[in-house]
Amino acid sequence: QVNFIALNDGSTINNVQIVVDLSNFDEEMLKLITTGACISVNGELTESIGSGQAAEIQAREIEVLGACDNTYPLQKKGHTMEFLREIAHLRPRTNTFGAVFRIRHNMAIAIHKFFHERGFFYFHTPIITASDCEGAGQMFQVTTKNLYDLKKDENGSIIYDDDFFGKQASLTVSGQLEGELAATALGAIYTFGPTFRAENSNTPRHLAEFWMIEPEVAFNDIIDNMDLAEDFIKYCVQWALDNCYDDVKFLNDMFDKGLIERLQGVLNETFVRLPYTEGIKILEEAVAKGHKFEFPVYWGVDLASEHERFLVEEHFKRPVILTDYPKEIKAFYMKQNEDGKTVRAMDVLFPKIGEIIGGSEREADYNKLMTRIEELNIPMKDMWWYLDTRKFGSCPHSGFGLGFERLLLFVTGMTNIRDVIPFPRTPRNAEF
Ligand code: ATP
Ligand code: MN
Prior knowledge:
By secondary structure, this protein is α+β, with helices and mostly antiparallel strands. Helix content is 32%, strand content 22%.
């Protein structure tokens, strides 16, 4: 009499079938081989007569390295994503998360390969920063001060002179400003590192700790920037299909029957390129025809994800690069257009995701940049080094930020960003 063990070492979605002739093994030892147990098998690899696999192993020796009792939470029945998040320390052992994290690895490799092959340098920007001009309000502070005994000045402001860095410091929200320094020196660079945002947005697309890829290229204008973004995403998607097909197919079949079709769709389509103003017109027309949005649509509004997804999924039915946004809703460093109202921003909008990339051509002119900074009352005391790029041999340059987990949402078809990073950090959640 024979029995079968489905063994998996984590390297692929596919199990290897172990054929066990029960008469050759100790019954007590076999009882220890339960779901989740760790075993070592020696035997002969043979062609399989059964369907479902080409080969199998005829076991000669089996050793139980780690038994697993029946309190193991991952029994064979299906589990909800919510439940699996509560056991994030064990979920990489499930076939779903094995697939997701193998794809995550492969995407990281694809990103480095893409940029390296094109002569970009991987540049490391700091994780701890003292410049708060971009993310004021949503930064995590870094301090070694005793929070029970904070010294304050006569206005009640905390004194940071005696803090570790001698000033207020935070975790970075973006490596872009330092990336710009590098681009004006090395030509083309990219960053790829963790980013932190204390935004209290409990959505399926926001994490408090996420990874961002930020290329920055000297002499690129916004058109070059759009070309780069489109080539880059297509390269990554192609890479997933070429190198992770088994895992992608598994996720397609288990969760999202349209996944592979959507990935191939993106490869075959050219992305729509559309000014924000035109996008607003399309949305207003939709509203006039009776389409209901939760949030209002008007020129000047910061588009909500429902608006972005309407343009992509319902109107154009392909990815859209929206450009030339109102300057009021975009960052101070974006290049100002002649019209005095818009800036050379570009957001790449994707099906199911909404914004996947945010970028721009940067304002290269010192005076225009300073005027904008003054208009916005941005505290620039710690930013003299950034302004030096515009003072000394300034050049046109452009770049963008791609949220790594947003890319992974797209490539895996997962619907919650908490399920494409091993240990999600979100408001009120930093377990594991
Ligand atoms: P959103 O409007 O979706 O909140 P944003 O405009 O604040 O994003 P940017 O500052 O442009 O985002 O950051 C560049 C990219 O980083 C975004 O296009 C997105 O892919 C990613 N990103 C931004 N915030 C988050 C977050 N909290 N979690 C995961 N990815 C993020
Ligand atoms: Mn953005």
